[in-house]
Amino acid sequence: MGGQKEIVAYFYDPEVGNFHYGQGHPMKPHRLAVTHSLVLHYGLYKKLQIYRPYRANFHDMTRFHSEDYIDFLMRVSPQNVQNYTKSLGQFNMADDCPVFEGLYDFCSMYTGASLEGAVKLNHDCCDIAINWSGGLHHAKKFEASGFCYVNDIVIAILELLKYHPRVLYIDIDIHHGDGVQEAFYLTDRVMTVSFHKYGNYFFPGTGDMFELGHESGRYYSVNVPLKEGIDDASYIQIFKPIIEYVMQYYRPTAIVLQCGADSLGGDRLGCFSLSTKGHGECVTYTKSFGIPLLVLGGGGYTPRNVARCWAYETGLLVDTEMTHDIPYTTEYFQYFAPDFTLHPEVVTRSENGNSRQYLEAIVKHVQDNLKMLEHAPSVQMQDTAPDGLKFEDDSELDPDIRLHIKEEDKRIEAVNEFYDDDNDNDKEELKDPQG
Ligand SMILES: [Zn+2]
């Protein structure tokens, strides 16, 4: 047992595991119920502040998405879907992103949990916030993509930006975090760092190492394209130096970590060879910087392994060792046959296609680009007073969030004039009992 100092808030809606994307669809929300059962039966709840989360509404979702897209999500159902054939095409709601019973409620639950996690971090109500139902990184402003409808990550980051001058987004899902990168491609207020499989038309097809960001956001998008079969040792060999450099050069004031579990070996859709321990080491390393942290789920298509991984990572976040044997009291005990352990042997389906030289070259490429930040004078490296940055009235904001962010940049610059250093950031006034 470690000495846990951090307050860890954990968001779980008991209904979120009851949704079905449809027969044969690889995305199974039930994995969330299995994860939660392990969290409870391992006794981790004793170290968590467990919340039944807020449900995001139309206004919350349209902070990023277009109104006509969210309006469509609210209205469409399996019963009336035949009246919406044109909209289905317009919003990319085909095979990957089907219309299913309760779709809008599902989006509302997972998005509300991420948003509330961001609010609690903003108000210093916790040090770490966990929402395993969130992390749907492919959703776009105008359309669904890759099993994702509403981008809870973008919405949570927009909330963090009310109080935080620089937010770091880290994505360890096997797929490129394209929706989040695209949303913040033009701004230096958010740095996105995605580690993913790239090449051979692997979904979504973006995320090569030369996607760096644009305009004010140039060098603030970091992409780490990987080949199939990467194992723990290779992954850690790149993850730690890259994140260390990012921390050093970007100095984020909040971190959002997307923990997609489809990067584990044996995933139904993935082709990496990470173990739960290797995956978890990324979580531990990110936590070690002691910066306010929002931890989210994401992909993961072998449900028993997703549950193992996220329960284990919950344990890491509360500094609690967990027994190798799965508690037999969990109602899903039979899912973990034949070994009934937390860390079964990793299934390796493909050889590691990432040579040491290839990985070293990528790390060097990322480091060279990060060094460019030193030469780019920017408002973002100034300290920011947390007070006075709450913009409740966003009626004047441009629907384009990129402009919205630029506007906040200006305000932060103005507020900064009155503060010399971090010691002036008195957060006491910000504590909000409702937060
Ligand atoms: Zn994925």
From TrEMBL:
It is found in: Nucleus. It is an enzyme of class 3 (hydrolase). The active site is at H138. Residues 418-427 have a biased composition (Acidic residues). Substrate binds at D96, G146, Y301. It comes from the Eukaryota. InterPro entries: HDAC_I/II, HDACs, His_deacetylse_dom, His_deacetylse_dom_sf, Ureohydrolase_dom_sf. The keyword Nucleotide-binding does not apply. GO terms for biological process: epigenetic regulation of gene expression. Its main location: nucleus. A divalent metal cation binds at D173, H175, D262. It catalyses: N(6)-acetyl-L-lysyl-[histone] + H2O = L-lysyl-[histone] + acetate. The keyword Secreted does not apply. Belongs to the histone deacetylase family. HD Type 1 subfamily. PANTHER family: HISTONE DEACETYLASE 3 (PTHR10625:SF36), HISTONE DEACETYLASE HDAC1-RELATED (PTHR10625). This is Histone deacetylase. The gene is HDAC3.
